[in-house]
Structures are given as C-alpha cells and as structure tokens.
User: Which sequence fits this backbone?
C-alpha cells in the first residue's frame, strides 16, 4: 500500500478517480467526527406512554391524562403522537379524539367548556441508521426557530399510517446511513411516506443521508425524484470527508460548510446551492403536491464537529442557513436558485 504514494501524479489521480467511482455504489453515509463511516448510530429508545385513564384508548406515542369530578363523563381516544389533557368539574361532559400531530387541552367547569387545539407541524425521524448527534443538532435548529416537533423511531414509523403522516406538515430525515435507514423501515412504511408527500402534500427535508434516502434507491428509498438516484459528491477527485467544503448560493454568497460523504443532486430539482465543481449541493422542487428540499452537507453541524478543520464561515452563520432551509421546507417556499 505504501508504494501507492510513489506513483506519478497523473496515475495517482487516475487511481483516486477510480476509487471515487466505486464510492458512488457503496457510500451512502454521512459521518461525524470519531465515527466509523457507514456505521449507524443506535437510535435512542422512545418509551411508549402509560395511560391510567378509565375509558380511554391509546395507540402509538399517545399520552392521555383525565381528571373527573362530580358527574362529569370523559372519553378520550388518541392515535399517533397526540397528547390530550382533560380536566372536568361539575356536570360537564367532554369527548376528545386526537390523531397524529394534534395536541388538545380541554378544561370544563360547570356548564362551560373550553377547548384549545395546537398542531405539531414537524416530524423528525430518529430511527435506526440516523446519527444521534445529528438528530440532536436538528432539534437545536428547530428549537431556535420556535418550531414544535415530534420524533419517530423505526418501530413507530413502521406502525404509522399514511393518514397520520399527512397530519404533519414536514418530515425531516437527518444524517446517518441511508442504506440502514431504508433496510430497517418496511416497504409499507416507505410507501406510506412517499404517498403522504406525493399525494397528501406533506413536505420533506433530507439532510445528507436523508438526501440519499429521498431519491431513488434499491435500498428501500422514498423515490421522491421519479427514478433519479444520486452519487456521493467526489470533491473533484481529491478525497472524501469529513471536511470543510465551500458552498456557493445565489443569495448568500460563499460559505464553508461541514461535509461528510454527502450526495450531489444532479438531474433533479432547482439548484439552490453548488459545490466547488458546480454540482448541486442543495436542490428544491415539488414531488407530486408535496415540497422537497435535499441537502448534501450539514449546515446544522456544531463547533465540535469542526475539530481539526479550518472554516472561513462561523458556526452561527452556517446554523442560520440550516434554519433558512428548515423554514423553506416547512412552508414550501422557493429559495433563490440558479
């Protein structure tokens, strides 16, 4: 192996380009510092709630709490990620049904009933194949933007119906290993996600591995791109990540962003940002009646991810761009593009 470095420079680049071509077949992962490329993070367990309410039915990640006093009658049915809290005093009768991303709080005193319903707009996938650190980074961005969100692991996503998925406005799949993500989800689950976007109008934000997963893939990808599949960005044949890569946009100029073996998105969508070689680093477009943004790098990366690398752009600036992408994905708004 050591003799490799003594080849003439021309042959050296040929060998690197050859290895890069092979990577398009085998590498569909986003790494993080100190991790082994392609090794999926262990998804944090999401405990199912325990309900002690009499006369209530709960399913999935629902949580129901009911308190009754006097002659009140309370019936609650929850499916998906709903949370219901009911307090009844006097002769009030309350019936509450929540599905998917809706949280309802009802308070009844005497003959007066008040109901407040709040929608959770974002579903963040944190299942097998995602990187726990990147899930945390995305949560930080969502919190900074004041966005309420629910999380779903692999088992919960596999059990989630298309109608429940449609109750969310945006699904985010972060970095990790797209092969593992797809292989641990059932065909029914990915079909439900696909249909909720294409036919139901849910939006999708895929970051790095989530970008691969959003395209066509033999590894149970979502195919939101009408059969278009994506290669890893090859950094002009100079090697693989993680590293700082200069990203250009028509509105924000040039930014150094954390990249770790992420995709480039040739042949699909409108180009929002480019890599140094001109290939698409961020794309946007419609998939059926849904809205899709795919990102090949990690604008949500924290300072700890940058260890040993040099960036000309600060973490707050890059993270602000992550927030811009998240809001555009949520609202289905066009970003400036080439």
Assistant:
């Amino acid at each position: 192996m050591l003799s490799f470095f003594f080849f003439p420079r021309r042959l050296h680049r040929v060998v690197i380009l050859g290895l890069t071509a092979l990577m398009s077949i085998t590498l569909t992962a986003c790494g993080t510092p100190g991790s082994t490329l392609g090794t999926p993070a262990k998804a944090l367990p999401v405990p199912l709630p325990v309900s002690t309410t009499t006369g209530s039915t709960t399913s999935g990640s629902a949580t129901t709490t009911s308190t009754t006093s006097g002659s009140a009658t309370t019936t609650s049915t929850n499916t998906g990620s709903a949370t219901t809290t009911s307090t009844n005093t006097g002769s009030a009768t309350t019936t509450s049904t929540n599905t998917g991303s809706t949280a309802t709080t009802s308070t009844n005193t005497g003959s007066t009933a008040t109901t407040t319903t709040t929608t959770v707009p974002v579903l963040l996938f944190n299942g097998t194949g995602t990187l726990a650190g990147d899930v945390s980074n995305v949560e930080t961005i969502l919190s900074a933007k004041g966005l309420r969100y629910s999380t779903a692991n692999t088992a919960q996503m596999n059990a989630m119906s298309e109608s429940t998925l449609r109750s969310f406005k945006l699904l985010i799949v972060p970095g990790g290993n797209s092969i593992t993500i797809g292989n641990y989800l059932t065909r029914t689950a990915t079909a439900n996600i696909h249909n909720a976007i294409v036919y139901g109008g849910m939006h999708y934000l895929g970051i790095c591995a989530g970008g691969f997963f959003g395209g066509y893939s033999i590894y149970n990808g979502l195919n939101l791109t009408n059969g278009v599949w994506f290669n890893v960005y090859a950094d002009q044949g100079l090697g693989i990540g993680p590293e700082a890569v200069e990203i250009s946009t028509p509105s924000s100029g040039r930014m150094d962003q954390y990249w770790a073996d992420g995709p480039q998105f040739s042949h699909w969508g409108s180009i929002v940002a480019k890599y140094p070689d001109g290939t698409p680093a961020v794309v946007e477009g419609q998939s059926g009646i849904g809205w899709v943004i795919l990102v090949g790098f990690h604008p949500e990366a924290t300072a700890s991810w940058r260890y040993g690398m040099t960036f000309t752009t600060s973490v707050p600036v890059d993270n602000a761009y992550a927030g811009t992408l998240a809001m555009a994905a949520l609202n289905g708004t066009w970003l400036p593009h080439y």
Observations:
- DSSP finds eight helices and 18 strands in the chain.
- Residues 199 and 289 are 6 Å apart (CA to CA).
- Residues 1-29, 31-99, 103-117 have pLDDT under 50 and may be disordered.
